[in-house]
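Task: encode each sequence below as C-alpha cells.

Item 1
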Amino acid sequence: MKKGFLGVWVLLAAGLWLGACTQLKEGECKRDSHCDSMAKQKGAVWVCYKEPADAEIGTCMPAKDAKQALERYKKKLSGKCEDKDGDGVKAGDACDPPVDCNDNDKAVHPRATEICDAKDNDCDDVINEGQKRCVGTVLGGKRDPVCQFMTTMTSGVEVAPNGEIWVSDQHQIYKIDSSDKAHRIAGSNKPGHEDKKGNFARFDQPVGMAIAADGTVYVAECENNCVRRLSADGQVSVWAGLCSNQADNTGLDKVGKWDEARFWCPTDVVFDEDGSLLVVDRLNSKIKRITKDRQVEHVAGLGGKETEEGVEFGHSSGPAKKAEFNEPVSIARGSDGSYYIADMNNNCVRQLKGGRVSDFAGVCGKVDIDAASFADGPAGSAKFKRPNGIAVGRDGVIWVADTGNHCIRRIEGGKVSTAAGKCKQQGYYDGAIDEALFNQPITIDVDKGGALWVVDLGNYRVRRVYP
C-alpha cells in the first residue's frame, strides 16, 4: 500500500529533524536541556554556554565554569591586545593564546628559550626547567596560581619507581605530572582521620612516603601517629598504629600486631630489601619495621631516658637497639643495604648497617641549637644544623636538606660539600645553583635523571635542583 503525499512529507520532515539532532557532537548543545545527560553523569548544574550569546551551537559546561567563561568573554570584548615590550608577542584580555605572560620584559614570552635566571622565560609556569647547575620553583608560593591549595605546609616529596613525583602537604597527598602540574590524589584542607577514598579521606600532617612498584603509597603521618596506605585507586586505610591525634593516644611506644603497635609522630618510611617498611618514629627516637605481614618490630634506637626533668634523648653509637638518637627525622637506603638517617637534634647523619649504628657525617651530639654551625670538609669534622631530609642517588651520592643552614649538602667520598644555596643565608631566589637561596629546606629526593626535588618549607615551595 502506497503512502500519500502528506505521509511522505511528514516522514521526510521527521527525518530531517532527527538528523539535525544527531548532528550535535558530544558536549555540544543548542539549549540547556541538551546538557541534562552531562549533569546525570558528572553531577552539578550543567548549562549550554554560547559565545556569543546568539551563536547557534554552544558547549555544555558546569554553571560555575560557564560564568567564568562569560566574564572572560566580556573582558575580551572590552579589553586590549598589544605588544608593549616589542618582543613580537601581544598581551591583554582581548588576545587569543598564545599571549605574553610578561609584556614588560623582552626576555619573557611563549616562544622564548628558558635560561637559568629568576624568570619564567617561556611562560609555562615553571622556572629554570632543564637548566644545569640551576634551581627553579616547580610548585607553590603565594603568587603561584597553579596549585592554590599548596600554600599551607608542604612537608614531603618522593620520587616513585615510575618517575612520578609525589608530595605531601599539610592534610593532603598529590602528585606532579610530566608537565609539572599537581593533581590532588587524597585528602582535603581539613585535618582529621578518615579512611575513605580520594578527597573524602582525611590526614593530619603526612610527611614521608614510600611508593611500591604497583603504585601503592605508604605514608608516615605525624599528627595521627600512624602509617597509612594509599592504594592505586585512591583508597586510604591504616597500615599500622592507632590513627589518632587525641592527647590520650600520643606519646605511645609499642611493637606487635599492626593494630596494637603505637608510634609517636612517625615522619618517614623506606622499603627494606624484602619489601618490609622501616619507619622513623621521630618523637620516640627509634627506627621500627613493619613486616609484610604487618608485625611492627623495634630495629634501632634506645629511646628516651627518664630524668628528674623529664625524658631526655642523647647520642651514642653501637648495637642498633642500644644506640641513641635525638629526634631522627628521615631515612634513605643505600645500594649496599645501609640506611642513612638524618638525626636532627644531634645535628648529623647516622648509618645503620649490620645491626649497628655509627656516626656517618657531621659532628654528632646534643649542642646548643643556636650555636650549631656549618662546615664543609671531611665527614667526621663537617657540621650540620638540624638536618631533616636525606636521599641517596643511583650513583651512591648522599644528599642532605640542611634545614638550619638553609642549603643542600652533598656527601661523597668521605667528604661533605655544599651542593646548592648559600649556607647560613636564609631567603628565596631561583637561579644559578651557587646563588640560589632557600628557607628551611626539609625534604629531598633524587629522580632518575639526577635532579633533586626539595620541599622548601619556609618558602612554601617545591623546588627542583639540577646539580
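Item 2
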Amino acid sequence: MKAIFTVILSGVIIGSMILLSSDPASAGQKKIVYEMKQSGHWEIYAMNTDGTAVKRLTETQADNRAPHWSPDGTKIIFVSERDGNKEIYIMDADGSRQSNLTLHGGQDYNPMWSPDGKRVAFVSDRDGNQEIYSVSVDGSQPVRLTRNEARDYSPHWSPDGTKIAFVSRRDDNYEIYTMDADGSHAVNLTQSHAEDGRGFHSWSPDGALIAWGTDRDMNRDGNWEIYMMNADGSQPRNVTRTKSDEQMGMLIWSPDGRRIVYATTRDGNNEIYVMNRDGSDAKNLSRNPAVDSQPVWSPDGRRIAFISTRDGAEEIYVMDLNGDSPQRLTFNGGEISAPRWQP
C-alpha cells in the first residue's frame, strides 16, 4: 500500500469541546487535538486552531494514540499502552482524570463515541479473535456486539445512534455490514468479491448514505475508488472513476454533507482533494509535491486541517476550503498524526 494507507484507521469521527487553558488569553478557544511521537513513543496534545497554547495531555512513557473528542466536548477517548497492552482510556478535556474504560488483558482499540456520548464502541481480541464491543463511558456495562470467528473491526455509529457500520471478513473477504446498536440484525451491505471498506467507510451526516473505499473496479483500471451507497446497501455507485494506480485514503464528509474531502495519489503523490457527494467538481486542494494526508473539516466547513511533509517533517497545517492560505500550525520536526477539530 502506498503512504496514505499507513494512516491509522481508526474510522474518522469529529467531536466538539472547549478546552481549558492556563493561559487566560486562550481560555475558551476552540482546539485541535492530535498525537505526536517523541522519544520513541506517542503522546496526545492539544492546541488552539491557530497553533498557539500547545498542551501535552498525556505523559506516560507509553504509546497514547487515536484521540477523539466526546460529542459534548467535555472528554477525550484514546488508546493507551501504559498497562502493557492496548486499552481504551478516557480523560477530561484538559487531560485530567484519566481512567481505563476497558480493564482487560486483551488488546482493546479503535474506539468510537456513540452520538449521544453515553457509550464507546471498540474492537477487542479478548475472546480469541477481533470482535466489536461497546462500553458505557464510566466503564460499566461492557457488551460484546459481534460473535463470529472472522475478523470484525472499524465500528462507526450511524448519526442517530441506532446502528453501527463495521467491516467483517466473515464472507472470506472484506465486506461492510451494519447492525443494530445492540449487535442484532447484522446485514452485509456490499456483497461483493472485492475488498470493500478495508481502508475506510463513513456515514453521511444525515445518515442516508455510506461512502467507502473499494478495489471492486481493480480489473477495470487497477486502482481503488470511492463508492457511495444508500444506508441499506442499495444503489452502490463509483463516485471517483479515476485513472489506474490511484490509491484513496481517509474520506471525511463536510459538516453539511454536500462534499467529501479525501487523500489520493492521482497526481503521482499524496494530495488532498475535495468533491461533491456525487463525485463531480473534484479539485486538488493541497497542490504540493510533498505527502499531504489525513484531511479533516473544521466544524463550520470553512477550513481543512491536514498533515503535510512539505517543510521536511510531518506537521499539521490548515487551509481554506478552496486550498488557499495554507498555514503551518506545528513546528516539531517529528511524527504527527490524527488531528481532530472540535466543532
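Check on item 2: The first strand starts at residue 31 and ends at 38. The longest helix spans residues 218-221.
End of task.
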